[in-house]
């Protein structure tokens, strides 16, 4: 951030009075520009013993498989955002959705809210951000070609739960350390 | 938003190619400025049969009672943000936290993530944003002086759960319609 989005003057980074973190501050109009984490809302679409994955048509991780998910928009609920992403990326109509987990990715300031639900009619087709969509049994999941650690983590928890016959709501942290080491914490 | 925070040129609102919602776009440097919901992280601090509330020292709703909660910061996890807010607003040290619910407030583009947990040592004192802090039994909760509908909703669900002896993870929508009517949806 270089300029104030309100008045166009140059901003500087400084801790405002009464605050304890540096913010982008405009000394011309007084605006403080906060930057906050973003929510990614996604789905585990279920059909019989299979779940739906999308192969990404866009960067990052083009060509790799993911659960349908994307940035939540203003004015939405998390579950509406998750259902919208499943529709946009896979032509999927989600039914009977329930919260499956929230996953914190503090190194990129994102929080994933994941819902599971039935894939209406078992029907799906690739949207503009997907090369293909496919229903996978647990045995057929392309574990080595998953797009993101949060997708692997969600799928591992999901199949563990399914084997035990109880779906809990999970909280997890997925942390990429500066040395690139990945740390997974489950609560 | 009036000016591009990257290059300082005037922005306009327009649907970018491949998108389906209007965004603030800079035709000078090409930046697209997305605006997304914010996460508010909060706690239900428990001590024996009582829970901790804070009386707000700041607007909005100065003088009204709330659960400790505030905007999540970049680089945090949701549970760390909730614990930090409890410490800042009430000097509280939270222990054994678990996810209690996520509540969507689409009319103001906020998502509350609420955690319950033990108030360490039963100790609390008002931080700079609180006039006072106090432990309340269910019978003593100041229901008519609660700051926000999401606080009421969280407390109602919490005491229902406690009476039944089972704490579930809740998902709820708290919607203020244009005619000011409040709608609560529970999932």
Automatic annotation (TrEMBL), chains A, B:
The lineage of its organism: Bacteria, Pseudomonadati, Pseudomonadota, Gammaproteobacteria, Chromatiales. It comes from Thioalbus denitrificans. Gene3D superfamilies: 2.20.70.10, Nucleoside Triphosphate Pyrophosphohydrolase. Its cofactor is Mg(2+). It holds the Pfam family NUDIX. GO terms for molecular function: hydrolase activity. Keywords: Hydrolase, Magnesium. Residues 36-159 form the Nudix hydrolase domain. This is ADP-ribose pyrophosphatase YjhB (NUDIX family). Belongs to the Nudix hydrolase family. InterPro entries: Nudix_hydrolase, NUDIX_hydrolase-like_dom_sf, NUDIX_hydrolase_CS, NUDIX_hydrolase_dom, Nudix_N. It comes from the Bacteria.
């Amino acid at each position: 951030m270089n300029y104030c989005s309100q008045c166009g003057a140059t901003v500087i980074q400084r801790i405002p009075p009464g605050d304890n973190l540096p913010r982008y501050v405009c000394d011309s109009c007084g605006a403080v520009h906060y930057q906050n984490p973003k929510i990614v809302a996604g789905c585990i679409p279920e059909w019989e013993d299979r779940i739906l994955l999308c192969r990404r048509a866009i960067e990052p991780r083009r060509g790799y498989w993911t659960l349908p998910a994307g940035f939540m928009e203003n004015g939405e609920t998390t579950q509406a955002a998750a259902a919208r992403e499943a529709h946009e990326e896979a032509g999927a109509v989600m039914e009977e959705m329930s919260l499956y987990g929230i996953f914190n990715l503090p190194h990129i300031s994102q929080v994933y809210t994941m819902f599971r639900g039935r894939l209406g009619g078992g029907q799906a087709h690739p949207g503009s951000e997907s090369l293909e969509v496919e229903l996978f049994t647990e045995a057929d999941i392309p574990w080595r070609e998953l797009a993101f650690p949060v997708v692997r983590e969600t799928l591992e928890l999901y199949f563990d739960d399914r084997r035990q016959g109880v779906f809990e709501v999970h909280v997890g942290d997925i942390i990429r350390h500066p040395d690139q080491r990945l740390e997974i914490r489950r609560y």
